[in-house]
Write a structure and sequence with these properties.
This protein has 232 residues and is mainly alpha-helical. It has one domain: Arp2/3 complex 21 kDa subunit ARPC3, CATH 1.10.1760.20. The protein contains eight helices and two strands, in the order H-H-E-E-H-H-H-H-H-H. The chain has helices at 10-37, 41-57, 74-81, 83-101, 109-133, 138-165, 171-207, 218-231; strands at residues 60-62, 67-69. Helix 3 packs across helix 5 (109-133), helix 4 runs antiparallel to helix 5 (109-133) and helix 6 (138-165) packs antiparallel against helix 7. The longest helix has 37 residues, at 171-207.
């Protein structure tokens, strides 16, 4: 997903910067508002950002695409802090990864943010919300959100590459070729991200439900209350 400098044309990477800004600007405003309402939100947001940074650092090079394959962490982030805040977190994470670790590049932060922070975060968040609306168990909704968000990130990244590099090859065909380059490494990683997302969210709900207002349904709150009574 970390597209390197020099892969996209100036017109392409500038366009992805503009597309990402559409989500980052309201994300910044949302963060500012929530920090004013709750001063504890800022350190919690920073903790989530560190989680995304560490998770997305574990990458495997993908020579076919000139990119790399790795878990994202953004579906989980979108569930706990919201999709717009996740877009902001992702942009910051990708900047530091490009500067200090050589993952991705400065010119491609917009494209990488759009695929990982926006498409990955929003698709995972929507999957979570839909499944929870139909009373899906928390672990299942979180796991599928992680899986969907992870694969959606790489579908978006493959599309960004195909859109910029397809030449005389039909866009859809080139998109499939790039995604197939990711597939062998990304499919097992997506399964791992599903397990990770479900496990972490379940652990957070069990230990610190106060950090996740709105995550638990009334039925879930009753279950957690019973668990705590049994422990006590």
């Amino acid at each position: 997903m970390h597209i390197e400098d020099g892969i996209l044309s100036p017109q392409a990477w500038a366009s992805w910067y503009a597309a990402s800004a559409v989500f980052i600007v309201p994300g910044i405003r949302q963060i500012q508002k929530r920090v004013e309402e709750n001063p504890y939100y800022k350190p919690f947001l920073a903790m989530v950002g560190v989680g995304v940074f560490i998770t997305s650092c574990m990458h495997l090079p993908v020579p076919v695409t000139g990119s790399c394959s790795h878990p994202c962490g953004t579906p989980l982030a979108a569930i706990v802090v919201g999709p717009f805040a996740t877009a902001v977190i992702s942009a910051i994470v990708l900047f530091f990864q490009a500067i200090f670790l050589g993952h991705g590049g400065i010119t491609t932060i917009g494209a990488n943010t759009f695929s990982m922070g926006i498409v990955g975060g929003i698709s995972g968040y929507l999957c979570w919300k839909i499944l929870r609306k139909f009373n899906s168990p928390l672990w299942l909704a979180a796991g599928l959100a992680g899986f969907v968000g992870d694969l959606a990130t790489y579908l978006a990244s493959a599309f960004e590459l195909a859109l910029s590099l397809h030449g005389h090859v039909p866009l859809v065909k080139q998109w499939i070729i790039f995604f197939m380059g990711y597939g062998p490494t990304q499919l097992p990683i997506a399964v791992a991200e599903a397990v990770f997302t479900a496990a972490v969210l379940q652990a957070m709900v069990s230990r610190r439900p106060d950090l996740l207002p709105g995550i638990l349904s009334g039925k879930d709150r009753k279950k957690e209350a019973v668990k705590h009574e049994i422990r006590d």
